[in-house]
Amino acid sequence: QERQVSGRVTGDDTQPIPGASVAIKGTNRGTVTNAEGRFTLKVPADAILVVSSVGFQTREFPVGNQNSLELVIPSTTSSLTEVVVVGYGTQKKSQLTGAISSVGSKEISELPITNARQALQGRVAGVDVVQSSSQPGAGVSVRIRGRRSINASNDPLYVVDGIPLSGGIDDMNPNDIASMEILKDASATAIYGSRGANGVVIITTRRGTPGKMTVTYDGYYGVSSTLGKIDVMNGAQFAEYKRESRRAVGQYDDSDPQADSKLFEAVELDGIAKGRTTDYQSYILRTGNIQSHQIGIQGGSEKTQFAVSGNYFKDVGIIKTQDFTRYTFRVNLDHQINKRIKVGTSTFAVYSINNGANSFLTNSNGFAPLGLTLRENPLGKPYDDNGNLIFLPTSDGLQSNPAAEVVPGANIAETKTVRIFNSLYGEWNIVDGLKYRFNFGPDFTNRRFGRFWGTYTNARRLGDPSALTNYSMGFNYTLENILTYTKTFKGKHNLNVTGLHSIQRDNYETGGINVTGVPAESQSFYSLGQAQIISGVSTGLSQWTLQSFMARVNYDFNEKYLLTVTGRYDGSSRFGADSKYGFFPSVALGWNMSSENFLKNVSWIDQLKLRASWGTIGNTAIDPYSTQTLLGRTIYAFGTTAAYGYRPATIGNSNLRWESTSTANVGLDYSFARGRIAGSFEVYQANTFDLLLSDQLPGTNGFASVLRNVGKTQNRGIEVTLSTVNIDTRGGFRWTTDLQWTKNDEKIVELFNGKVDDIGNSRFIGKPITAIYDYNKIGIWQTAEADLATKYQRKVGEVKVEDINGDGKIDADHDRKVIGSQIPKFTAGMTNRFSFKGFDLSFFLYARVGSTITSGFHQTFNTLAGRYNNLDIDYWSPKNPTNEFPRPNKDQESPVYSSTLRYFSGTFLKVRNINLGYNVPSTIASKLKMSSLRLYVAAQQPFIFSQYRSKYKGIDNETFDSVNEGQSYSTRQILFGINAKF
Amino acid sequence: QSCKNLLDENPISQVGSQYYNTLAGFESGVRSVYSTLRDYYGREISTNLTVFGTDTYTMGADGSYKYMNQYTSQFGSNVDLLTNLWNAFYTGINTANILIEKAPDIPGLTDAVRKQRIAEMKFLRAHYYFLLVQNWGPVALELKGITTPRKDYKRAPVPDIYAAITADLEAALPDLPATVPSTDYGRATKGACEHMLAKVYLTKATSEAAAADDYTKAATYAKNTIANYGYKLNADYAQVHDQSNQQSSEIIFACQYTTDALTNGSGNETHLYFGMEYDVQVGMKRDIQNGRPFKRYRPTDYMLNVIFNPADRSKDSRYKKTFKDTWYCNNPASTGASKFDKTGKSFTFTAGDTAIYIPGVEWTLDQRKAKPYQVLVPSLYAANLFPTLQKYLDPLRPDVTYQPGSRDVFIARLAETYLILAEASIKLGKAQDAADAINVVRRRAAWTGKEKDMEITAAQATMDFLMEERERELAGELTRWYDLKRWGILVERVKKYNSDGAPNIQAYHNLRPIPQTQIDRTTGGASAFPQNTGY
């Protein structure tokens, strides 16, 4: 008995799949889905449908007695048959020998992110992404498999459309990205040699495909607000805290009815009487918003393909006057000139305006009014009774009204960036299998930072306005000649040989002018020449060059036994004359076990591959001119005559050579039960030697430090990636989970004098690179311990530190120890996705667990001196004998042993994102002249769970090591978005 | 070949050490050694080290470094200002060492200039070692330029350091010029060198490097300074610290600052620290004239009642000329109740009216009530309210918040030379010589017509008298702590007159703590480069 059934085929992203083949198993009957992914078919009883499509896994579905079917087939991007981008080429995932992870456009597009690096967070095992500031346009830090280098940079290399970047990817538009591949082990990164020491992120942008032209619109709009204000003391708490700070030094007599009037000034007394708490934070905060609009056009003929996109992005921050606007434009073109020659370009242009950020040049002078706000006396009055702003709400000369900071025009901190990045190539198929490719990647970046401080700002406090500008002009280019040869012998021996010569040169010019006494505030920083005082003028030039020769051989036997051998010879201008070049080899083996006969018939194993690699790579990431002995300029005058001078500023080391890391990696890729359980498992050990280390010198040298190649560090880690399909019902309900878990242990193995601690630099054998070495706070001196406290020259209510050697006194030589480690016990990310009919729901959790962080935030806002407002923490008083924080004391600007009060647990769990989407049925979409339409709402960072925030009133402890005082609020965003395809 | 050139590195925007092999480079190096003076003079550390923790000054309301006055255990090896200063002195010393070694090989350098420049380097090197040894006692004695970094440092005995200082100064003396052209004003001269020698020998005489002839030498060099170079006291004590008169005939050597931001660097910031909190008082707001009152240093009762004995103020003009006592209304909009004078009066001022007056002696409440301004009497002095030292006030700053002041810091002036001569003479038993020297200073300090009343007799020329006279003349001029230490009375005086420092000060506070970074980074740590006892 045959009957008619109808249905729709969608991918696991719930997008309909047109042109999919739907066949009845065991017959040669079948059909193909239409543009909306729909089909109708006559089927016999107990029929099984086999659904397949290019780019998707082939799946079987029993029809049963259903008449309407929702058939979901997973894309191959979660399987091992996917093609991935590797350095200078692509490879089938099954043929990979190195540790490479991928993030696809789906993961990137499902989060409304501003920065491409955010897409990596929690997605890829071994990649630690930290974003601690929510300031618009703020950068993100990425560490791949921990830190190796003490002195040099630990930032990974970013390669965009084949060109290694020198300027970072913060200017990139994340919506243009088709995929990101993260190369982690030495074998995978070896092809980038010295550049790849900290791992490599390869970014491929969307390119055109032949066929029907598509036009897409992707946009979202959302509002952002703080994830809670900072809990500082309210008016009454502040008053009591101020009293306590005087009681501590015998200057507040509770029995004196006049005590308050002696201590407080009029406005404070008024505030106390009226129970006033001025919430200064509310004067600098607003509801922010974020939006992105992107139009993309893709298409082309067999000979010419194109992808064009334009994007407008704007993030209006939650602190007034902070915002970020970015306009980007991209053209990707590929053209086949003839059968053998192909040329193409990726051209990307960006223009952005950022208000509030630090100068790109000095990493300072940004607009950050939060600190002033948190310290402001809550008893004060920000506005008088006529509504006029009171610039000095109390008599404290250092504290001006935070509300004055955000008056338009009072503070301007504007960065403008123009960048044009190109990747041009020509490809010549010399003979079959032998290919020559030429890459040229010019990258121009111009930036300007302008800063203005008006008279009514805290920085000027009624002084004349001051201003500065910083300029930079960067030109970086990469030139590469690549020869590849691919051949299969006897149908079983697959060989691929790649040879490369590459030059990269960077030229970076900078300039700056600082002035005081801008005549009219309206001139801002646009007429510095008219200022009364030119307080600084500077220009600079920095250049570096890299030259490399590389060869790689990939060989496999029947796709079962795999071998990769790579060698790279790198030269850097940054090293000493005789040590510019270094040779970095690597070798990797792979074994596709599932292709072996003994496993071929094990039905539940789809794929099982064992990989092992070893290799060495170098790190060049020291500043140019580090090998040279340079003089620094000094400023003096004889009478009124300028007497500038030069004196030794750095002590050079012409023997500096490559810092090198040898990594051994063993990995296992697996896929079971038709992809229901898939993932990989990696174990590695990376030994770094010839460490480029800044050796801090005794001051008697006249130099602070010298760079040397000494010492060793080690990173060991485990990475687990697991993707599961938990539920996949016939009714179309599907639940999948992606989990990644990373543990990386970092330690110093050797220093200048072998296995000897270097206390002067806080470096300890067996401890992480930046150990926290300090006195150990064990509580607060309590009233009952007064005598003992006196013996230690301390008073009751002060911090009690451990007398480690028990000699009855506290001294730096004997009573400091390593307090904790900034290295988390593990980091983990988990994404859960649910889909049903046209709906999809996902949420993403991210956690760092077990680290100890240093909170500069507390160092600054928990000074307990009874002058500035303070975090609302648990401080000691005779009535509150806590062991948390010491007694306020007006005679000290910060408590004795205050450094011990800034160490906290770095553990947190964040709900990064909750995303609910709906795919409008194609019948409706087509009426709107669309081929598909998706609507979604998303909540970004709706929750953070962290004791540092909840108990210790911190701000956001998502950090590698320290929370600094300038950190901005954490934000929560609620967004609404559309993905439309025409 | 081209591949090789491709990787050559050429620091275009920076200057490499080869520059020192040229005449221009060598001269620039010499100038840079002078700039080290600015790492001490004009910085907060200079006043923290000399004004704080003495008998004449204690702490005011504000500041992070009160422990340097209180001598609590926070005053230890991790005080950033001390570490920075230590490092700065050795940077200057190392540069001087390198230049002294390079001097013989500089093309185009004439013999005469070479000698003068070497002498200048030795003069400055000695100056930095003199400050190091007074503060830290035995320190590393480095007289050779560093080209390869070292970690094997040790502390040289105090006598070795004094020997190096006197050797440098005595070697420099013949090669230094008696005068310099105005475009070189501030370079070392013979007079500066002789004054320094006098002071070094005076100081050495009570140190563990003491020699029998120290006082004789101190007196001789002081006399030479006075006699041979045409230095002359200003007629009026008020002219000494008149900002428009900084290169007066009395100034022997000074750290140079300017009104040009490009050559002034961080400037002289001392103007920030001595002020009292006038700016929140009725009728007043902060202005350039009256300065930014950081209220760090507050004169002690001893300073106000003994050094500047009210009974002597009618003949000795220095109390009036040292301390600011009147503030004129600059903020008529601010009217209202008095804040400190306890009269309960409410004031309305017009600009220019007297708003605050400090009589310097006690007035009754009724006397105060009779005045149309607030009166700050001694019984109302507080951590934020006290007579303000006006020697450093800097009304030439372009705006009210501007920190880099333009006053030179006087390192040696003739009045002190006379007092050095007097001190050496007392120690040598030549009381009349001492009285003669002191009287030169005191006559100048007199109100017009009171010169005779100011003179002292030989019998009055005692150490006790000199100890007070020095502070009357030099209050706030970066000498007091070194004076007390030289006289061996630091602990006794602080216990007696500085109630904030009294509970904690001990004998070991005669030396400062060695920076922890120096100890930790030296091979062998504390056993190779030990901390001063007590810290």
Q: What do you see in this structure?
A:
The complex is a heterodimer of chains A (982) and B (535). Chain A is mainly beta and 982 residues long. Among the domains of chain A are: 3-73, Immunoglobulin-like, CATH 2.60.40.1120; 83-208, Ferric Hydroxamate Uptake Protein, Chain A, domain 1 (Beta Complex), CATH 2.170.130.10. In chain A, 8% of the residues lie in helices and 48% in strands. Chain A has 13 helices and 51 strands. The longest helix of chain A is centred in the first third of the chain and has 13 residues, at 235-247. Chain B has a domain at 270-389. Helices cover 41% and strands 7% of the residues of chain B. Chain B is built from 22 helices and twelve strands. In chain B, the strands form five sheets. Chain B has a three-stranded mixed beta sheet, with no helix packed on it. In chain B, helix 14 (365-369) links the parallel strand 9 and strand 10 (374-375). The N and C termini of chain B lie far apart (60 Å). The relative contact order of chain B is 0.14. Classes of the chains: A mainly beta (982), B mainly alpha (535). At the A-B interface, strand 26, strand 30, strand 31, strand 32 and strand 33 of A face strand 1, helix 2, helix 5, helix 11 and helix 21 of B. Strand 30 (630-634) of chain A pairs antiparallel with strand 1 of chain B.
Provide a brief overview of the structure.
Chain A has 982 residues and is mainly β. Chain A is 8% helix and 48% strand.
Distance between the termini of chain B: 60 Å
In the predicted model, the low-confidence regions of chain B spanning at least 5 consecutive residues are: none
Helix content of chain A: under 10%
Largest sheet of chain B: 3 strands, mixed
Helix content of chain B: 40-55%
How many β-strands of chain A, per DSSP?
Answer: 51
Assigned CATH architecture of the domain at 83-208 in chain A: Beta Complex
Secondary structure tally, helices of chain A: 13
Strand order of the largest sheet of chain B: 6-9-10
Reading off the top of the CATH hierarchy, the class of the domain at 83-208 in chain A is best stated as: Mainly Beta
Radius of gyration of chain A: 31 Å
Number of helices of chain B: 22
The secondary structure category of chain B is mainly alpha
